[in-house]
Design goal:
The structure is a homotetramer. Chain A has one domain: Class II aldolase/adducin N-terminal domain (L-fuculose-1-phosphate Aldolase, 3-Layer(aba) Sandwich). Chain A contains 7 helices and 7 strands, in the order αβββαβααβαββαα. A 7-stranded mixed beta sheet of chain A has the order 3-2-1-4-7-6-5, sandwiched between helices. At the A-B interface, helix 3 and helix 6 of A face helix 6 and helix 7 of B.
Chain lengths: ~220, ~220, ~220, ~220
Amino acid sequence: MIELRQELADLHRLLVTAGLVVWTAGNVSARVPGADLLLIKPSGVPYEELTAESMVLCDLEGKPVQDGLKPSSDVFAHAYVYRQRPDVSGVVHTHSTYATAWAARGEAIPCVLTAMADEFGGEIPVGPFALIGGDDIGRGIVATLEGHRSPAVLMRSHGVFTIGGTPREAVKAAVMCEDVARTVHIARQLGTPEEIAPADVDRLYDRYQNVYGQGVR
Amino acid sequence: MIELRQELADLHRLLVTAGLVVWTAGNVSARVPGADLLLIKPSGVPYEELTAESMVLCDLEGKPVQDGLKPSSDVFAHAYVYRQRPDVSGVVHTHSTYATAWAARGEAIPCVLTAMADEFGGEIPVGPFALIGGDDIGRGIVATLEGHRSPAVLMRSHGVFTIGGTPREAVKAAVMCEDVARTVHIARQLGTPEEIAPADVDRLYDRYQNVYGQGVR
Amino acid sequence: MIELRQELADLHRLLVTAGLVVWTAGNVSARVPGADLLLIKPSGVPYEELTAESMVLCDLEGKPVQDGLKPSSDVFAHAYVYRQRPDVSGVVHTHSTYATAWAARGEAIPCVLTAMADEFGGEIPVGPFALIGGDDIGRGIVATLEGHRSPAVLMRSHGVFTIGGTPREAVKAAVMCEDVARTVHIARQLGTPEEIAPADVDRLYDRYQNVYGQGVR
Amino acid sequence: MIELRQELADLHRLLVTAGLVVWTAGNVSARVPGADLLLIKPSGVPYEELTAESMVLCDLEGKPVQDGLKPSSDVFAHAYVYRQRPDVSGVVHTHSTYATAWAARGEAIPCVLTAMADEFGGEIPVGPFALIGGDDIGRGIVATLEGHRSPAVLMRSHGVFTIGGTPREAVKAAVMCEDVARTVHIARQLGTPEEIAPADVDRLYDRYQNVYGQGVR
């Protein structure tokens, strides 16, 4: 557990380095292997004060199971995703600038870059407007991602949620999502970038998911 | 007093880290608890040279009460706010890029993001054009903020002022103001983001002000 | 060889510092002097873990010639360039934001800045859309650069490739390409910058290539 | 002389920190007090290798007066300015992104911000297109600045030159020029910012030049 706590603290620092978060906004969570539990960022604590110990242990309803700091107020969305998606062990939420700008317009990011085909296997979709505090956001995330290969979803008027088989993969999806959101925005400012043909998207996605990288490390 | 001086020097460094200021522009002030006094950045001193000792002690008319460095030339605006608003103990002024761009057009930032509803409880309003050196800027700040929940005001053709119950809260408002100014600008470049319904803004604002964070720390 | 390995690892870090890459995207390769071999970044390894030892030695068909890490999946494009262009000893590939935005629209960057005339001797051209994994990308790079003085080519819907007489020169071209891609994009947002007359482009290019700098260092 | 050399090396590092330069582009020079000499950056040397010793001593025709590194190829423009303007003791040249974008369109930056009135006393003007290597660029700088209070001039299709009573003041002007170039660009993307009335520009300029700061330090 201590290793997972430390990894989670380190991944939060990665959000800062990548420029995805300001002040105390944004959070990463991890499913605890072999238990109906998750770890998540405490609410409203500055990134530079986060430690392995400050990560908050909760059940899969989002309720803390130990005394101490309160969990992120986004915990209910994370918990819902873990309940519905046993394949997911990491969830990230940010208000990263360009992705959130697409979300504010309620517009999906079209697949116009090979890097998007690689990582997202198509467009990055838009989920519904939903209020914080119950299952509404989680429901919107899960329902929207069902019809897509994308591990990222733009929640309308709000920000981005990403999922992964590990917390690190979810962070990678958050970083890549902001990167393509920015590049496609800038491309669109002076014209209309062409979409990649669906068959080519399939080939790129398949290759990247199966050939890229060093295999299990 | 030395702790407050040190905190103020540290908060100035936060403005630099957050990318809100260049060269010697921008300043933070703090009300001295239990006295009709304030501390503020000295005029024209580079951020990397600021120390606890270099913060300038002034009365609430903006007049320095000790020999030494001259206060920021914005001191009269800060002093006016402290005189009129006993609930305010921190004031920040910056020319942060995106917020100042909205100010240059004299346009309020509409509430199209849940993060804006959380922190600002609605739009970020625009105050009048006013010249430096007397009470005009302070008057513009106080009058404009009266009709809003926002702790930030865009002063026309000039920049941003933010207020807070503590200096740190005022800095937070300055950071969040630039963040949403940037995101809403970028959203607007390619379309018109939808405003959040007033009842939802109220719910989000209420929750964020009362439920978010760890309570008094 | 160990010096070349170390230089290559250091040049990868330069891509990060210059803001041209995120996560594990992007790569630099170097021709091994006096041998039909190249060194290249391993596939999917984070930049902060790269060392001289982790650079992968391959033949000029892109096949690794030692046990260990797998090479970047872009190795075939690099290898093709080295086979066809004996004058090239360094190749860089990135998805840097502004250059990739021009690539997404399939639009060449017009020569409207003296800095572009200096380094690129004219426009930065666009190459074809090509899938990864064989010689298609390499063929597109070599064919497109044939008619231009530019050491950079924008590969449609994909990103940038740059070449150089040394790996460092190729990295320089990648840095300058993103810089002018950004500046010309921003100039174009509010009007149409004038192109530099071809005769002046020739004069600037000639002077920069022959007079600038300290000669061989 | 060694103090001036060290100050010049440090000011070059400030250009990097402020994000005004990439690779080896950009340079700062200083008039040597009481002599017809200047110090300037060597040509094509990376910023991280610059030392007090590597600064190149030249006469006011731009000719090096010691063996060693070649001066920046922009030395003739700097030298011309020192010959014509005895009040100037520092000159800076950059291709900073937003200022250069205005220069590429050949458009002056209108005075729509109080910070511009403070530092530039009006618009930032555009100078002619001129080729490097003789007096043409210097002549364009001096002629354009004659009719303006601005210490910065946008050279068409090229970049920015700034002047100052000290090298540090010229660097300040370069930093402020990029800052207002960026803010006004962004303001203009979504509308037309109002210009500040000339009488108010005069009041702001006068106050900033005479009241701001700590006096001679």
